[in-house]
Amino acid sequence: MRISVVGCGYLGAVHAAAMAELGHEVVGVDVDERKVDGLSRRRPPFYEPGFDELLSRSLESGRLRFSTDVGEAAGAQVHFVCVGTPQRRGEYAADMRYVDAAAESLLEILEPGQLVVGKSTVPVGTAARLGEMVTGKVPGALLAWNPEFLREGFAVQDTLHPDRLVYGLPAGADGETARALLDEVYAPIVERGTPQVVTDYATAEMVKTAANSFLATKISFINAMAELCEATGADVKLLADAIGYDDRIGRKFLNAGLGFGGGCLPKDIRAFMARAGELGADQALTFLKEVDNINMRRRIRMVELAREVLDGSLLGKRVAVLGAAFKPDSDDIRDSPALNVAAQLQLQGAVVCVTDPAALDNARREWPHLDFCPTAEEAAERADAVLVLTEWKQYRELDPVTFGRVVRQKRVLDGRNALDREAWTAAGWTYRALGRRAG
Ligand code: UGA
Fold it and tell me: Which of 148, 265, 291, 331 gets mutated to test ligand 1 (max ligand atoms within 8 A of its CB)?
């Protein structure tokens, strides 16, 4: 099939390359010339395991190209909208201007029989509005909503092997036509028996925000338990293990620590609350405000814990921060808890050096007042405390004995409950973690 993908950020670039991998002829369109140029030259604008190879394969096959001209999307049977919906400045609601602009630009080239497919995370009601726009301007064209659940760090795998396909469709015969087109796009995935959930627009839109809200709630739940563990001397890691064996609860996303960040969970729960308010159903989601509060408190607690470990004062203390990305295997620093903590420590007088295996360029650009070092060893040179704030494999596997030789004081704060406490304490380190007793 001929496919266009409008918006070549994280979601769109991976989606475009994955669709080419499935055998389609794909054009990725983005207004950002640098992004288009980089992708065309196999230089992705972000770090994502496995994406370089997928991009190279797809470009080499001749089935994938990128352009800044939406006119290149003309003639495609299916047009995916993959632009971002960031949080609006000073508000909780999502900024819809990129989605609206993408939809409007597609209207210029859309033809009857073609399908526009929204993948962006949007406030419920958006698809109905855009659907009217599409059919009003181009009778015979259709719109579907097909949310995406990819995780950064696993984007390639999640796109090519999703755990479910959700199709939000218009009613009646149009819905059947749209479904057939989507099934054709995803044929190898459908044939594999991947579960499909076919819904109306509103349900499909809500599936995405509900899923992210649930994940955020799960993380904040265990972090609330961590607060209680700190008050009682209990151990949140063992608690999570023990309740996680109950498969109604499950151990995944019960890792207590610094909490969630990134470009999705924080802004999605806020946009969901804002939309519920507009719909007169704000009470239904007031609990998400608490989820957000618990999450933000972890960052403050981390700074307090650092102060405690550093004998009550941060002034002039050398602190190594390992990790800048919001999570491992990503160079994404949007709403990164690690950088947030690093900045607070510096503001309160500590001499902070941040390191990260992939996110240093992004971090430098967005946080120019922070100091950065290329390696963990350099960041930790003569440090009074080491804070592990993003659980990269490199940091989980540090040898506490050799690493202990570079620091001034062997004090480690495990912000992600990711280190082997016994190994670190055996090597003479004072080990502290959120929700666990001092080791
Ligand atoms: C999230 C969802 O997991 C995806 O399903 C969704 O498609 C995506 O948002 C999106 O909306 O596009 P992502 O933002 O890549 O994916 O990151 P997650 O893996 O969900 O992690 C989010 C944050 O939670 C990270 O900061 C991570 O460190 C933190 N986290 C995760 C915890 O603190 N504890 C956990 O147990 C798990």
Answer: 265
CB neighbour list of residue 131: distance below 8 Å, 6 or more residues apart = 143, 170, 201
Q: Taking the CB of residue 292, how many other CB atoms lie within 10 A of it?
A: 20
Amino acid at 390: T
Task: Please report the pLDDT score of residue 248 as a whole number.
Answer: 98
What domains can be seen in the chain, in order of their start residue?
A: 2-199 (3.40.50.720), 215-433 (3.40.50.720)
Closest atom of ligand 1 to 153 CA is: 15
Write out pLDDT tens, residues 168-216: 999 999 999 999 999 999 999 999 999 999 999 999 999 999 999 999 9
Question: CA-CA distance, 346 to 248, in Å (whole number)?
Answer: 42
**For residue 439, what pLDDT is reported?**
72
Q: What's the confidence (pLDDT) of residue 438?
A: 81
56-76 per-residue burial string, b: 16 or more CB within 10 A, e: under 16: eebbeeebbbbbbebebbbeb
Atom 3 of ligand 1, nearest CA residue: 151
Taking only the tens place, the pLDDT of each residue in 396-410 is: 999 999 999 999 999
Residue for token pair 């749209």 = 178
Ligand 1: atom nearest CA of 216 is 24
Rounded Cα distance between 132 and 129, Å, is 5
Average pLDDT on 292-314 reads 98
The residues pairing with 66 across neighbouring beta strands, listed in sequence order, are 28
Cβ–ligand 1 distance for 46 under 6 Å, the answer no
154 lines ligand 1 (CB under 6 A): no
Residue nearest to atom 25 of ligand 1 (CA): 260
Q: Measured in angstroms, how far is the CA atom of residue 75 from the centroid of ligand 1?
A: 36
Q: Are the C-beta atoms of 8 and 35 separated by less than 8 Å?
A: yes
The reply to whether the predicted model has a pTM over 0.70 is yes
The closest-lying atom of ligand 1 relative to the alpha carbon of residue 416 is: 33
